[in-house]
Each structure stands twice: as C-alpha cells, then as structure tokens.
Amino acid sequence: MSATDMLLPLSAAETPSRQQKSVNKIVWSIAGSDSGGGAGIQADLATIQDLNCHACTVITTLTAQNSVNVNLVEAVSEAMLFAQLDSLLSDMPPDAIKIGLIANQQQVNQLAQWLSASIVKANRYVPIILDPVMVASSGNLLNQHVVDFSPLRGVVSVITPNQSELIALARAFKSDARNQASSQAGNHAEVNHQADPQINIKDEFTSITPAITSSNEALTLANMVFMAQQVSRYLGCHVVAKGGDAAWQADRAMDVYVCQHVEGGSAEHNDSVFVLSSQRVDTANNHGSGCTLSSAMACFLAQDFVLHDAVVLAKAYVTSGLKQSIKVASGPGYLARTGWPTSLELMPHIVPLIVRDSANRLLNDASFEQQISQSMRQKKQYQFSKLSTPLEVYPVVANISMLEMLLGAGCKTLQLRLKPEISCCDKGIAFEDEQQKAQWIEQQVFNAIQLSRKFNAQLFINDHWQLALKYGAFGVHLGQEDALSADLAALAENNIALGLSSHSYFEILLATQVNPSYIALGHIFATTTKNMPSTPQGLTKLAKYTSLLKHHFPTVAIGGIDSQNLKDIAVTGVDDVAVVRAITQAREPVEAYKSLNKQWQTLKSLSVIADSKGLNNSTTSTEPYQEAL
Fold first, then answer.
1. Which residues, 6 or more positions from 305, have their beta carbon under 8 angstroms from its beta carbon?
2. pLDDT tens digits for 305-314?
3. Higher pLDDT residue, 367 or 121?
4. End-to-end Cα spacing for the chain
5. How many CB atoms lie within 10 A of CB 446?
6. Exposure check for the chain: N or C terminus, fewer CB within 10 A?
C-alpha cells in the first residue's frame, strides 16, 4: 500500500462525490426586521450563513429604524405569522429555532401555542433559543407594553436576557408567582400547584433575599445569579444572562450561565451556575450583539454540539465580532461576521460557581468575586511536567502483563487504567473486602511504576493520583470529574505530568484552565470500553478541537481507533492517538502495536509535508495530503 493510499479514508466506491455539497442544517429566525441592517432578522441571516447553516425567517415585526432611532414598529398580522410558520414547517423543518423580537402579548400567546403543538410535541427534539428583546441599542422601546413570556414555559430551551431584560423578567415572574400563590390560597388549590414541578412559589419567588433591583446601577453579581436562577426555574429552561456593562464587571465581560440537565454533557456540569468571563472589547459598535449571540447559539446546537459548547462558542463568536466591528453611520456600528471561532484567546474563561453555603443560603458578592479571582489565577499556578517525548500511538492497558509486553517492544508512553473486576485472562478477580481490593490496586500501581523506570518510559496512571504521587509516577490521567477532587497543586509541585480527558469544547476549555501536559479528545468513534454520557465526537468535531488547541497543548484522540480509521484521524491534525481494544484485544498485541505505530509515523510524516506547504489540515478532507504528495 502506498503512502497516498494510506491517507484515503474510503475507496472511491465508498465515498460520495466530493462535488456534492453537504446539506446545511436549517435554523429558523423568528424575529423582527431591522431596516438598518444591524440587528434582528438581518443580523440573524448574516450569522446563520456565516456559521454554515441555512437561514429561514419568520418576521414578527417590521421596524423603521436606523443607527440612532426607531421611528415605527408594526406587527405582522396573525394570518401572516401563521402562514410563514406553516409554510416552513411543511418543507423546511428546523434543526434549531431562534426567537427574537415579539411585538406584543398576542404574538407571544400565538407563538407559544403553535410551537407547543407543532414543534415541542413532535417526535424529534428542536432547541429553541429565546432572546427576549425589549429595547433597541439606541434606547428606544420596541415592545410598547410589558410582555409576559410565561406562555413559553416548557417551550423554550434557553433564554438570553440582558441586564434590563433579566430584571424585568424576574420582577414579572415574582409578581405572577405571588398572584398564583394568593389565588391558590383562596381556592385551597395547593395540590394543583404541586403538579407543576417548574414552579416552587413558596421557596423561590416569595423569598425576601436578595431583593430584586430595579436599576442596572444597583445590580450586583449575587442579584444577577439569583434572578437568573429564578427565571430558569420558572420557565423550566437554561439561562444565559448577559452582563453587559455592569459596574461589578470592571475590565471583564462576564455572563451568568445557569443550566439544568444538559443532554450529552457531563453529569458534574448539570444543574450548575457558571460565570463566563472574556476580556472586554472597548467599542461602541455593538448593535445586534444580543441577536448575534442567540442566533449563533442556535447554529451550534443545530450542528449537534451540546448546549455548553453552543454557549461558549457563541460568546467567542460575539467577542470576535466586536473586535472587528464596523462603523456604518452616526450611531453604534455593527458586529463583523468572522466565521467559526478558532482562537483559544477568544474563548471565555469558565468559572464553576458555588452559589450556596452548607446551610443553603445564597453566598454574597465577595464570595463570588473570590471564586472568580481564584479561578483566573489557577492557570499560572499549575505548572505540570511536560512530555519527554510525543505520545505517538499511546496504548491504554488494564494489567501489568500487557504493560510489560509493550514496554519490551519499545513503547515509550503508556497508560495504566486498572479494572479490578477484570484480570488479564478476562476472569473476575474476587476480593474479600474493599481493603484487599485497595491493596491489590496499590501493588499494581507500584509494579507498573517500577517497570516504567526500568524501560525509561512515560507511564500515566489513570485516576489513582494519590498512588501515583506516593510512588513518583511520570504522570496521571484524569477525567473531568476526577480532576475536581484531585490535589492538582500537589501533583504540579511534585513535577508529575497531567493528562485530562475532554468530550466537548466546554470541557476542553476547563482543561486548558489548569495547564495540563496534554488534552485527550474523545471518544471519537463508538467504544465499548466505557459507558459515556456523550455521543461519539466524530472526525469533524475532532478537527475543530485540534485546530483550537494547535500550538497550545499536545492533543491525543481516543475512542474506537484502529488501523482502519487511523488515516482519517491523521487528517484532522491531532498530534497523537490513544488506542485500547486495537492493541489489548488483538491476537498478537505486540505486533498490533508495532504495526499501528509504524502506520502512524508514516501518516505524521505526510502531515509535516502538508504543513510545510502551508496546506490546511483542519478539515477531514484528504486533498491537502494528496496535494502535498
């Protein structure tokens, strides 16, 4: 087989014509028309197209506005609203929906009814992002009356209010909850209320601390967190509360992200509060930033990224647009459309926020600020040992005998992932008690570290960081959950290398914040070695992840990798590959390792040729390599 043949992922007979364009995901924008072109439908169209989706529009409102004034706002008729929705649904059903300006309460009710009947009750999940637009960037009121969004409870997936909108929503929902509580008390209808799990009136909206503010100047981070949580619980959805220019933000642009259960996300990130912090961009050209954020989120969700990813990618996209924003007329200018976020520097810093103390009382601003400050400092604090040599083909083994065989075959980097319930002969190991099991694990780790020293190899111990620290292992590999409880400072101080697993952009960013020795990206293909909450990431996502981390951190792909798909993996630009079953379950594990490693070395050599010719290897296409040859 020639080197060129090795790079082809599929035979010509197996591969669809490369002249045939892939079908874009369809994103609907249900919003108002901005005649000035900077926000609303116009901003959504530009964003959706820029992020490789096809835009469909349902216009709710016509506005006559420019960069300084809104002169007239006019709602479309009920017939036109429904005609647009029905026409699109019959031929171009959505993969995601963004809702922007809704003209009045009647439209809210109409949309809620239609979406509930036609989308929510359908057989497939469609994420719906609500940007509760109330005021234009010029300061003009777009909704002539206070709009009650409660009919959209159970319909929208995410709501993205700015400060003013968050305050209005929280106050309106608090008032509504009090009215419901009063009505229930009068009708002795507590049983009916308890049937709705999204509303806990007694605990959530009649509580007196902290007070909901009525002005942006008085808004604090603690109040913002509290209100975002209330809105999330009341509407039964996730919330991205945009901080804007709040006084407490200083030189940072910080948003509050309140999530419930996120499908495909890690369990440790469910039902959590995060602060997403980016460097503030000093520009007045921010017209349409809220519209852009919500429509970008819809695009990322439509392309099968988990919600956590959609949120951080959308924030990075807006930051990039602000950095390259455009001044068009007398008022605020518009965001640039800069394509898929590929710069790690533009990505937000993620702060998982501890919101309540042990007595379930909301913590104060000082505590929140301390958590943010500590999180921002940790990347400089942790300095883990660097890799001595590239990982190359990186076997992950479950027992000492396999470890010793591969070390003897010249393998210089391995990971020991112990499974006490399975021995090398695939027979269960019976332990009398947990103490005996712990002793067995410790002996295995000790033996493995001694062997790695004998062969001068880089051995990473999976999970058992205390034992790795005790016996001086070269490195430790941790999952995201285990990294939360591990003493990372002790590992760094003892010059132990750290590998971290990741399954999404969100987890990649959390990994980069502790400055690890390498980041594992997976699982790429379906695997039976572990039960995973996430779906296989695939080659397209892998290419995007490696492009983001290139020149920052060594990367290794893991999950279902074997000789048949190794060439596809190489095209993504990932540095190295971790392999489990293709070696450990092979009839001749040593020969399987040698063959895979030789194949990988050839592929990497061709990658260097492609890089030297300035060819882009951040896609899953093989053309750059063929051109290099």
1. 313, 504, 505, 541
2. 999 999 999 9
3. 367
4. 15
5. 14
6. N
- Which of the two residues, 423 and 291, has the higher pLDDT score? 291
Q: Are 29 and 295 in contact (CB under 8 A)?
A: yes
d(CA 185, CA 176): 14
Q: What 3-state class would DSSP assign to 302?
A: helix
Question: Closest Cα partner for 287 from 227, 327, 254?
Answer: 327
Q: Tell me, what DSSP letter sits at residue 624?
A: H
User: How far apart, in whole angstroms, are the C-alpha atoms of residue 569 and residue 403?
Assistant: 25
Question: Whole-model pTM?
Answer: 0.89
Look at the chain and count its residues: 629
In which residue are the tokens 């990186």 written?
A: 394
Distance CA 150, CA 172 (A): 9
Cα 520 from Cα 556, distance rounded (Å): 5
Question: Angle 226-230-235 (CA atoms, 0-180°, nearest 5)?
Answer: 150
Nearest one of 495, 419, 407, 481 to 448, comparing CA atoms? 407
Which residue has better confidence, 200 or 480? Answer: 480
Beta bridge partners of 393: 577
- Which amino acid appears at position 434 of this protein? E
Mean pLDDT over all residues of the chain? 86
Nearest CA-CA partner of 209 in 224, 225, 221, 226: 226
- Report the SS3 class of residue 146: coil
By the 10 Å C-beta count (0-12 exposed, 13-18 middle, 19+ buried), 211 is classed as exposed
The residue with tokens 């109409």 is 110
Written as one letter, the residue type at 468 is: A
Task: For 361-515, list the strands marked E by DSSP.
Answer: 393-397, 413-416, 458-462, 475-478, 497-502
- Are 43 and 299 within 8 A, CB to CB? no
Q: Look at residues 404, 434, 408 and name the one whose alpha carbon lies nearest to residue 416.
A: 404
Contacts for 479 with CB less than 8 Å, ≥ 6 apart: 463, 500, 501
